[in-house]
Design brief:
This protein is of the alpha+beta class. 34% of the residues lie in helices and 27% in strands. It is built from eight helices and eight strands.
Length: 221
């Protein structure tokens, strides 16, 4: 999976002379949190909603509304933006992009192609792909299994699920530790008790098993 497959195209950008207030209004209107700053077709920086809010006057200010508006109209994104900008190309593997974002503690990566901004990928895009890979939001049974780190072990688990009448929706494996590894599976249709027996026969240890509709959030406060 490459970032070019999941990036947002037709990126909304700002110019270096875009005012603080205009940039903030644009973010609110388009429901976005970051604006690459371009001069001509050249990327020169990036500004986030957090950057804009941190440079706005405090609510406790004694300035009048007119003075605040005037001040924010004079403040340009070129004075606020972060540069240089960490970027990747569209051929970058998605997992490498996620690792870069973690290492550098950035919430997005502009995607550069031919010296121009071709797209942008954000932590929300990464999270969306993660949900898809884990089968989130779909009904079915969630399995966490410990299996032997040997050829054929995963195939045996897949056969056990099929024998119990199930269909694998998503499957993910963690790096093996010692002689065993952990896998997470979302399946649909298997009889749980048949599956339990079949997994035991193939030497797969059930760490966790849940059969329920997708969890719903609970509000507090």
């Amino acid at each position: 999976m490459l970032v070019g497959q999941y990036m947002t195209r037709n990126v909304i950008t700002a110019g270096p002379d875009t005012s603080h207030r205009t940039a903030l209004d644009l973010m609110r209107e388009k429901n976005i949190r970051r604006l690459p700053v371009v001069q001509g077709n050249r990327l020169i920086g990036i500004v986030s909603l957090e950057d804009l809010l941190s440079t706005a006057p405090s609510p406790a200010t004694t300035l009048s509304m007119y003075e605040i508006v005037s001040l924010l109209d004079q403040l340009k994104v070129s004075q606020i933006m972060v540069h240089p900008v960490i970027t990747v190309g569209p051929e970058c593997p998605l997992q490498d992009a996620a690792q870069i974002m973690l290492e550098h503690r950035v919430g997005c990566l502009p995607i550069m192609q031919g010296g121009e901004v071709a797209g942008i990928i954000t932590e929300t895009d990464i999270m969306r792909v993660l949900v898809m890979l884990l089968g989130g939001g779909q009904p079915g049974m969630n399995l966490t299994l410990r299996i032997k780190d040997e050829p054929g072990a995963l195939a045996n688990v897949a056969n056990a699920i099929a024998h119990a009448g199930g269909n694998i929706v998503a499957i993910n494996a963690l790096p093996a530790q010692g002689k065993s590894g952990m896998i997470a599976i979302k399946e649909q249709g298997a009889d749980e008790w048949t599956l339990r027996g079949d997994l035991k026969e193939v030497g797969a240890e059930i760490v966790d098993i849940q059969q329920a509709p997708p969890h719903q959030p609970v509000l507090y406060g």
